[in-house]
Amino acid sequence: MKPAERLAELNLHLPPIPKPGGVYKPVVVAGGMAYVSGHVSRGADGQLITGRVGGDLTLEQGRDAARQVGLAILAALQHELGTLNRVKRLVKSLGMVNAAPDFTQHPQVINGYSELMADVFGADHGVGARSAVGMGTLPSNVAVEIEAIFEVTA
Amino acid sequence: MKPAERLAELNLHLPPIPKPGGVYKPVVVAGGMAYVSGHVSRGADGQLITGRVGGDLTLEQGRDAARQVGLAILAALQHELGTLNRVKRLVKSLGMVNAAPDFTQHPQVINGYSELMADVFGADHGVGARSAVGMGTLPSNVAVEIEAIFEVTA
Amino acid sequence: MKPAERLAELNLHLPPIPKPGGVYKPVVVAGGMAYVSGHVSRGADGQLITGRVGGDLTLEQGRDAARQVGLAILAALQHELGTLNRVKRLVKSLGMVNAAPDFTQHPQVINGYSELMADVFGADHGVGARSAVGMGTLPSNVAVEIEAIFEVTA
What we know:
The structure is a homotrimer of 154-residue chains.
Chain A: H1 3-9, E1 27-30, E2 33-40, H2 59-81, E3 87-97, H3 106-121, E4 129-134, E5 144-152
Helix pairs in contact in A: 2-3
């Protein structure tokens, strides 16, 4: 099943594309790869999901925030590429968690994003290389920010 | 107008290339991309710009520091490529801010770098994908460090 | 001398491949590049090397931790590629240090990894672009995590 069909089957609703909050493009395609800017966590209502995971937010809330980032990235890719069917595979992601000073479960947080990608693009093409780490601070105190590279067809 | 001409028109003076402070190359070209190492903030006098943005430094000082990193990256690219005219476009940047614990305006800081790139390479080719985030610490307590990928011609 | 021979000459013993601690692949090859997931510091006994460099751990212990990450990355590459001889060059690394709040010597820590890569792949092909920075937190409180991109042959 192709990603666009799979998206429909999963009944996923992609959020609107926010205006870039700085001098950058949400997605740049070059050399057969789509480079996706860091996307931040927003709820279904479009409001930022803020706070430190392991402090202000629970692990489960952090996972949900990471999943929301994934939906925003899918929306940005669909907008840039015309269709998600142009995605060949997820290549690499950098999952950045706004974590409390003693937090240690970053991979479990970013799994919320990674499981979504596996659902949409499949257990092979939807699973990429990844780092899941804790930042000192994130813009607007968002809970999660993720950037990624996808291989795409022309 | 080509980047090298635009650089002259803007009357920008590129700083000298510092000796790498570790076992790395400032720029590696592979697969049609120039991968640029993390460059750190130095003033026009070559001295490191240090301190936490939102604490030791104001937002405006952080922006200036980010712009200085941009000049250093242009210098490194010019040195490696022979001419900036080999740059096809800015693909992706990771802007890393040494931010105070409650700082939230990372995108505005990194815009100092991004606006320079847009000035030199143009509003399309000079604007790439980007993340702008806050680190726990940076080498020598520099205010800003940025790494980037540029698409280049052979 | 080819990397696999060099590895034997150096008498380096590569560690076993740990099971991924999340939804990701250790290495993804796409577009002529091997994208290597963030690998974390483990001792020769397989136990995680944890703690903040410049606090719980000395600079020298941090360097050793970074070298161990390098061995883990070599093991992952060898497993994915069949042989390290398919590596053309190290392109780029992001060295992430779990550093004490006042730590400033991140490049010296990550040199432990970079010197290993130079030993195995040579002073040209084994030295890539790099950033060496300090994170807020890392998974399981590991001392060092490094992700990298290598150019590979088909």
